[in-house]
Amino acid sequence: MKNHLLLSGVLLSISLAASADPLSAWNETPAKKALMKWVEETTAPGSDDYIPLNKRYVVFDNDGTLWPQSPVPVQIQFIMDEIKRLAPHHPEWKHSRLLSAAMNNDYRAVEKHGLDGLNTMLSKTHNGISVDEYTNRVQTWLKTAKNSRYGCYYNELNYLPMRQVLDYLREKGFKTWIVSSEGMDFMRVVSEEMFGIPPEQVIGSFSISELTMTNDGEKIIKTMKGPFKDTAINKPVAIHLFMGQRPVAAFGNDDTDQPMLRYSSRNPHYKTFAMTIEDEMASKNASHQGQAVSKAATRKESEKLSREWVNVNIQRDWSKVFENSACRLPDSDK
User: Model pTM?
Assistant: First the structure.
């Protein structure tokens, strides 16, 4: 009986220890240990590296960092699906190579049209509608459209290990922000439910909206005026504009996030942290719409800094990828 009770106590202790792990979806690799070490060192009162509560600002890219970005970024797929939905009302669209490619999910053909093509698709699907109508469209799509690669709805695609990082940081007094190249209005629809980040802590690409009077009262209308693309070197600019201070940590995954990672890493007042997320299969097999390659001088500078950054490989460092069990990794990703 004593042995039985002893064994039960040991198992209970193990179980409690496991449940107390804030990053339970992470493997016990150097990446997890480095993150937890930085958090503990910067939040312990009396520590030489202590960061005051009002300075604990942390920024996250979303595509490829908080959720997948293959075969294309999530908002690009939404735009293409919107073109398909609206196409019956616009028979003239079939004569456009760009719009025909979008209707056929021809990602490579769409990508060849570059930023001009993206702006054209945005104009066809986003321009001239109210923010409320746009929000309803995005919410409906997220709950009804399935990602062909992962087999689940888009509002189920958040990475569990990264959601745990967000929750862990917030528990330790950090304020978490999304800094995305995707549309700010788009990400604000999903940020709180999927990532626990309120809309006012989302920075993204945007155009200047307009206030107009309708029979139903005042409405904010989306336009294509004064567009700001929140990517690459624009990310630190947007952080300054919306946040008003320099972050102490940053999480990203590709070249377009490196300026944000550099900017945060160089905060001169505090011990900083930077982490990059790498998905080997996605980088080999997927086409990523709109990713820019850093110039040689910037790349060299980033490579020097990146030796101080913590690199996460999804296949190596995570024990479970998705928060929702309905989402599955394709065999080629395992």
Answer: 0.88
